[in-house]
Amino acid sequence: MKQPFERVVHEHAATVLRVCRAVLGPHTDADDAWSETFLAALRAYPQLPDDANMEAWLVTIAHRKAIDVTRERQRRAVPVAEVPERATPLPEADHELWDAVGHLPDKQRKTIAYHYLGGLPFAQVAEILGGTNAAARRAASDGIATLRRHYRTDSSLNTTGDPR
Amino acid sequence: MTNTNEAQALYELTDPTAAQLAALRGRLTDAAEGEGILDVAYTTIDTPVGSLLLAATAAGLVRVAYAREGHDAVLQTLATRLSPRILKAPKRLDAAARQIDEYFAGTRTTFDLPLDHSLSSGFRLLVQEHLPLIAYGSTESYKQLAEEVGNPRAIRAVGTACATNPLPVVVPCHRVLRSDGGLGGYIGGLDAKTALLELERAA
């Protein structure tokens, strides 16, 4: 028995936007990817098996839409001295973290987004991105380690353990 | 899920505000409507008989539901019987909401809305299509109605047809009473039935 799609949007809207933002950055590209994700999901929803894992399905679609948006962004890229950020305004203090996330290798950034924000187990992340479960785990661990080096706050200085 | 400080920080950093999500949802609804993949649009409105859920397909108003029916349960039934492509999209219900407001304000006596009868069939549909012929402010008995639809012995079936009317208020099943003048049943509860009859009597 399938829920009304409104419930799906209600339950997963924030998660999908977080994933899109982590992958694409906090500007309108993430909003576009979010819209395309839910529109594609709505289109395909009646055919989705009733026992499908909704979050994994949505994150998988978001992954493809983020790639589309990235390609589109490259096609319309115009060289300018400074890229105007049509962004949702960010708290001043967090620019450093955004910067660090933006500079992560693609696979590490996506692994972190899909695992930590999208809630997918590493096995599923590996399915989406290709590669093995262990490689996904390593990419996440390396990515988090890099963020830890770049992003220092009082709380993160206290972190001593490795990411599990 | 967020088992490191860095992941927690990233989670907070990407956390959307309610306003940002609302804007995205509005955009999704408009796009879905534009593409013709919004199979069922719904909204809720406040009325003197409580919150009413209004739902419409592209063909017309398909369901009016009282709060006591459980709006979530009603939406789930629509998802199963019509399509799960359901979104809260008040725009499609603007005309219905306005006419229902006017009805409760006493300034409207008949509804002029496209109706989608796909939740009813057979004898029930026959009865429900007959209901709008009962004039505003007047009532009929289940027995009279059975006679009018050409099946004088089907009094119980007429009762069932009224009880399962998917479009209460707009399709006026509240105008049907027992032969002895008793209220009979009503999907919105007897208080709601009484309120509608008094509203029409006062006008």
From TrEMBL, chain B:
Span of domain Methylguanine DNA methyltransferase ribonuclease-like: 41-116
GO cellular component, one term: cytoplasm
Compartments where found: Cytoplasm
Catalysed reaction equations from the record: a 6-O-methyl-2'-deoxyguanosine in DNA + L-cysteinyl-[protein] = S-methyl-L-cysteinyl-[protein] + a 2'-deoxyguanosine in DNA; a 4-O-methyl-thymidine in DNA + L-cysteinyl-[protein] = a thymidine in DNA + S-methyl-L-cysteinyl-[protein]
Location of the active site: C173 (nucleophile)
Record InterPro entries: MethylDNA_cys_MeTrfase_AS, MethylDNA_cys_MeTrfase_DNA-bd, MethylDNA_cys_MeTrfase_DNAb, MethylG_MeTrfase_N, MGMT, MGMT_N_sf, WH-like_DNA-bd_sf
Remaining remarks: This enzyme catalyzes only one turnover and therefore is not strictly catalytic. According to one definition, an enzyme is a biocatalyst that acts repeatedly and over many reaction cycles.
Family: Belongs to the MGMT family.
Name of this chain's protein: Methylated-DNA--protein-cysteine methyltransferase
Organism: Homoserinimonas aerilata
Lineage: Bacteria, Bacillati, Actinomycetota, Actinomycetes, Micrococcales
